[in-house]
Amino acid sequence: MKRKTRRHWLMKSEPDAFSIDDLERVGTEPWDGVRNYQARNFMRDGMQVGDRILFYHSNTKVPGIAGIATVASEAYPDETQFNAKSKYHDPKATREAPRWYLVDVAFERKLKRVIPLEEIKQHADQLGEEFALIRKGNRLSVFPVSAAQYDYLLSLE
DNA sequence: GCCAACGTTGGC
DNA sequence: GCCAACGTTGGC
């Protein structure tokens, strides 16, 4: 059954590998290569077409939120798991029992400026200490953001 | 480039 | 089922 309300998400990408500019260029991109069960479950079980995504640049000089994207497809099996030549190949995955799922992600817009992680941390009181992005040791690359957190983060733009 | 944090794997 | 070893993430 479909939910009526939209959820919000944050997805990390290393800009050297795939940046918000790359997404703008291609328009829509299958979000392949996620090999973490929790992140997979969010994509497979939580996302709906039209949900908004904060596009986060990780592992770069100024990590932070760089743009907005939307969920552009239902979840479907990540093709790279079946490809022996792919670095994302998973020998234990079969077409009958795929292990990894993804959604297509569509470009919406770049932020006027990147909102740096350093700055986001200064708003921990408003975002909540449990906010996954600023929780110590968090490495999850896909996770939900509440509507309030989403609005607050964009108010920093 | 370093390394803390954390998830996964596999031997037992 | 425990847990050491290993690999990866990602800030700094």
UniProtKB/TrEMBL annotation:
<feature type="domain" description="EVE">
    <location>
        <begin position="7"/>
        <end position="155"/>
    </location>
</feature>
<dbReference type="Pfam" id="PF01878">
    <property type="entry name" value="EVE"/>
</dbReference>
<dbReference type="InterPro" id="IPR015947">
    <property type="entry name" value="PUA-like_sf"/>
</dbReference>
<dbReference type="InterPro" id="IPR052181">
    <property type="entry name" value="5hmC_binding"/>
</dbReference>
<protein>
    <submittedName>
        <fullName>EVE domain-containing protein</fullName>
    </submittedName>
</protein>
<dbReference type="InterPro" id="IPR002740">
    <property type="entry name" value="EVE_domain"/>
</dbReference>
<dbReference type="InterPro" id="IPR047197">
    <property type="entry name" value="THYN1-like_EVE"/>
</dbReference>
